[in-house]
């Protein structure tokens, strides 16, 4: 990235006295550049003025739907009144500390897990044995005197995070197995893996969600019903695993064949070679694109609202359609949702760039 | 028991187990499904495709009536999907190319603006944007009764944009012949002009001549009165506008959302591709006296294209698959029509199989076309 920009930003040998001028010439060097700068400044000022006017000057800070209706600005009372519903949906009101705790626990655990120094087998075990069960018990209840809450009442931000994070965590091992199967030298295994991966990648997520919600019940014997949330979750896991498999395949191809052969010549079994030699190298290489995939899937879980699950986008939409606020706070609602999605996606993006940097400096 | 340790035996054993498992799972699902369907009195098979649909489709790329068959309804869905994805891919590419180049501008302000644009689009779900654009169209524009009359015959309201429709009365064949002939002539002139430019080193007016050759036959035909067009003007009724060409808000919101999200991806791909071209190429062009614009157009972009095409293929496939979000805002694409068919006929398995098959087939087609193009521009080792 630096190459092209350096070439143009810095003229060959800038004289020391011309350096301050050189800084300004990046903005006003030539007539064309000046026009671009002025136009850019005009756009930025216009957006700031528009946003400030809408968010602060013309905004309504207290009142109800009626006061908002007459004003042209943002309707903050709507956000204040509806925030709790947007975050937690129809989860029983008195019990909403539980999803909140679960969310905070998830954030904390993710925050710790994001530090490469803490990556270890113990952390993985902690996730499986402690964190995931605690999250589930907090949400579902039924143990330790917590009132049971059926999954049909789950909603809002916890549901979005559950679907995307848990889905991707569980899709990971499946994706790795698929990638290995695709690279296998057993033709039948390879064909099955290629078939699954290419079919899943060739159709939109919504069609897999439709299969899980509309078609799957037809494939179940009488009397057997699977929770709708679980079905959507399984659909997301299957969908994600195909994409993970393709990323892992790229990593596998980057590991020289010599590594595999060396392992074999030491007398290790296929799985031992994979687990101890090839996969550690391959997975390390694919961490940055994997985080990129996570960002995409975090956003794609919004599609479950189409098959009738109450995720964060869905609670925001029902808040907007509330009769008291109908047609008044549309922009407010979507902006709150956009801000939440933007924050988490941008954080993950920054993390991905950090990882890229981290691996470049330590393993180049 | 020595054969248990034989590698060849093990290889066969694993494969047989894997295939056996898949076949068994498939057979179990198939038999339970047929049992369930028999109990619910749903006939299996694709007979329902020939039955009358009995529902209307608000926007059809090919003509459709409620009395047409279910099969034709699904065809309309496919046509609508292709229409919106194709337009979104074209607009997204053009916009993305601009933003990608702006992203590398030496003007920090413009570069930052482009970066903000890309980040805003990439970090917020497409579905949210679709809902947002759709609601904004509905909220900001007036209801159809007070439709804005922008130009004579052009009405803008929250039920869409209505413009006069051009109906070709006669001479369609002649028009088509002129278009094809013009295109062929333009292509020929351009090829010859390029060859001569390379041979002589002198610039020529091949581009202008080609454009003239493209337009001249149609213009002459129009002068000669070879074809006639009927303009169908919309009329403002009490509740709705009738006649004319109707661009619906669902279509606009979907096209807008898809094109914007594609443009953000294209911008990043273009930027990465251009930056992957070595610095020496810029320096060599500068040494030859080429301007920055010419360097970009004649030296860097052709090389960047090779790096750009594979990820660009993925972006187009994503646009195509994302067009299925149409169902969320009510644009009758393949998924939405299929959903209606499912609700009306109860043939869930067949319908889902059809639309997944169509998506697969079209995805593969797009991949093939792009692979062919990739091979076409790839570095030719001589």
UniProtKB/TrEMBL annotation, chain A:
It is a multi-pass membrane protein. InterPro entries: AA_ABC_transptr_permease_3TM (IPR010065), ArtM/GltK/GlnP/TcyL/YhdX-like (IPR043429), MetI-like (IPR000515), MetI-like_sf (IPR035906). Its main location: membrane. Keywords: Cell membrane, Membrane, Transmembrane, Transmembrane helix, Transport. CDD domains: TM_PBP2. It is found in: Cell inner membrane; Cell membrane. The chain crosses the membrane at residues 35-57, 97-115, 122-147, 159-181, 202-220, 232-252, 291-313, 333-351. Residues 157-346 form the ABC transmembrane type-1 domain. This is Amino acid ABC transporter permease. Belongs to the binding-protein-dependent transport system permease family. HisMQ subfamily. SUPFAM superfamilies: MetI-like.
Automatic annotation (TrEMBL), chain B:
It comes from the Bacteria. Residues 78-370 form the ABC transmembrane type-1 domain. It is a multi-pass membrane protein. It is found in: Cell inner membrane; Cell membrane. Its main location: membrane. Gene3D superfamilies: MetI-like. The keyword Membrane applies. Pfam families: BPD_transp_1. Keywords: Amino-acid transport, Cell membrane, Membrane, Transmembrane, Transmembrane helix, Transport. The keyword Hydrolase does not apply. The chain crosses the membrane at residues 12-30, 84-102, 123-141, 161-188, 208-231, 251-270, 352-373. Belongs to the binding-protein-dependent transport system permease family. HisMQ subfamily. This is ABC transporter permease subunit. It comes from Shinella lacus. The lineage of its organism: Bacteria, Pseudomonadati, Pseudomonadota, Alphaproteobacteria, Hyphomicrobiales.
């Amino acid at each position: 990235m630096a190459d092209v920009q350096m070439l143009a930003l810095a003229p060959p040998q800038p004289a020391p006295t011309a350096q301050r001028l050189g800084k300004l010439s990046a903005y006003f060097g030539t007539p064309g550049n000046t026009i671009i700068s002025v136009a850019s400044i005009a756009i930025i000022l216009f957006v700031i003025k528009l946003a400030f006017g809408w968010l602060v000057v013309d905004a309504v800070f207290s009142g109800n739907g009626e006061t908002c209706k007459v004003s042209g600005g943002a309707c903050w009372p709507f956000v204040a009144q509806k925030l709790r519903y947007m975050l937690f949906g129809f989860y029983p009101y008195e019990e909403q500390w539980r999803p909140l705790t679960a969310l905070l626990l998830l954030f904390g655990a993710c925050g710790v897990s994001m530090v490469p120094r803490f990556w270890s087998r113990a952390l993985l075990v902690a996730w499986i044995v402690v964190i995931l069960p605690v999250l589930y018990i907090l949400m579902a209840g039924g143990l330790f005197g917590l009132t049971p809450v059926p999954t049909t009442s789950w909603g809002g931000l916890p549901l979005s995070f559950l679907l995307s994070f848990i889905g991707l965590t569980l899709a990971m091992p499946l994706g790795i197995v698929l990638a290995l199967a695709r690279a296998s030298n057993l033709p039948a295994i390879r064909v099955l893996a290629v078939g699954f991966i290419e079919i899943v990648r060739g159709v939109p997520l919504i069609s897999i969600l439709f299969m899980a919600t509309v078609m799957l019940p037809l494939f179940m014997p009488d009397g057997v019903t699977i929770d709708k949330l679980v079905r959507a979750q399984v659909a997301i896991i299957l969908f994600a695993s195909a994409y993970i498999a393709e990323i892992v395949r790229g990593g596998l191809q980057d590991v020289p064949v010599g590594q595999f052969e060396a392992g074999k010549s030491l007398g290790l079994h296929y799985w031992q070679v994979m687990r101890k030699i090839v996969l550690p190298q391959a997975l390390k290489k694919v961490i940055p694109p994997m985080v990129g995939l996570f960002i995409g899937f975090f956003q794609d879980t919004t599609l479950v609202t189409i098959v009738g699950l109450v995720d964060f986008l869905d609670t925001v939409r029902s808040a907007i359609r509330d009769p008291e606020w109908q047609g008044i706070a549309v922009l407010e609602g979507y902006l709150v949702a956009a801000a939440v999605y933007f924050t988490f996606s941008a954080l993950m993006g920054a993390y991905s760039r950090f990882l890229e940097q981290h691996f470049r400096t330590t393993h180049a | 028991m020595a054969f248990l340790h034989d590698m060849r035996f093990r290889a066969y054993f694993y494969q047989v187990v894997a295939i056996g498992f898949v076949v068994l799972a498939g057979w179990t699902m198939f038999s339970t499904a047929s049992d369930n369907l028999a109990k619910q009195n749903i006939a299996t098979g694709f007979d329902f495709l020939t039955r009358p649909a009995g529902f209307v489709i608000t926007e059809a790329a090919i003509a459709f009536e409620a009395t047409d068959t279910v099969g034709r309804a699904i065809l309309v869905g496919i046509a609508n999907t292709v229409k919106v994805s194709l337009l979104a891919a074209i607009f997204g590419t053009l916009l993305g190319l601009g933003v990608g180049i702006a992203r590398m501008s030496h003007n920090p302000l413009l570069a930052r603006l482009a970066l903000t644009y890309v980040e805003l689009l990439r970090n917020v779900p497409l579905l949210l944007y679709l809902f947002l654009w759709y609601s904004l169209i509905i909220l900001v524009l007036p209801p159809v009764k007070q439709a804005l009359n922008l130009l004579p015959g052009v009405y803008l309201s929250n039920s869409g944009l209505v413009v006069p429709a051009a109906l070709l009365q006669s001479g369609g064949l002649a028009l088509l012949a002129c278009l094809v002939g013009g295109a062929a002539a333009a292509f020929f002139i351009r090829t010859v002009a390029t060859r001569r430019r390379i041979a002589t080193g002198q610039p020529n007016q091949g581009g202008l001549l080609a454009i003239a050759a493209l337009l001249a036959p149609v213009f002459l035909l129009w002068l000669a009165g070879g074809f006639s067009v009927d303009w169908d003007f919309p009329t403002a009724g009490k509740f709705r506008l009738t006649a004319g060409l109707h661009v619906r808000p669902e279509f606009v919101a979907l096209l807008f959302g898809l094109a914007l999200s594609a443009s953000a991806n294209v911008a990043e791909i273009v930027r990465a591709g251009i930056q992957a071209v070595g610095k020496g190429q810029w320096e060599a062009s500068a040494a030859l006296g080429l301007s920055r614009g010419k360097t970009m157009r004649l030296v860097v972009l052709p090389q960047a294209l090779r790096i750009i095409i594979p990820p660009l293929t993925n972006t187009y496939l994503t646009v195509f698959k994302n067009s299925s979000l149409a169902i969320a805002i009510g644009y009758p694409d393949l998924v939405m029509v299929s959903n209606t068919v499912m609700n009306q006929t109860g043939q869930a398995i067949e319908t889902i199989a059809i639309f997944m098959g169509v998506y697969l087939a079209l995805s593969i087609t797009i991949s093939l076309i792009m692979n062919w193009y990739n091979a076409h521009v790839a570095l030719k080792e001589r």
